[in-house]
Amino acid sequence: MNLNSLPSLLLALACAPFLLTVINRTKAFFAGRQGPMWFQPYYDLWKLMHKGAVYSRTTSWVFRAGPIVGLASVMMALTLVPFGDSPALLHFSGDIILFAYLLGLMRFFTVIAALDTGSSFEGMGATREVLYSALAEPALILGLASIARVTKTLSISEMQDAVTLEVWRDSGMVLAAVVAALIVVFLTENARVPVDDPNTHLELTMIHEVMVLDHSGPDFGFILYGAALKLWVLGLLIVDLLSPPHLNFGNPVVSWLVSASLDLGGLLLLAVVVGTIESVIARLRLIRIPQLLVGAMALSALSLVLGRWGG
Question: If you average pLDDT over every residue of the chain, what do you get?
Answer without folding.
Answer: 91
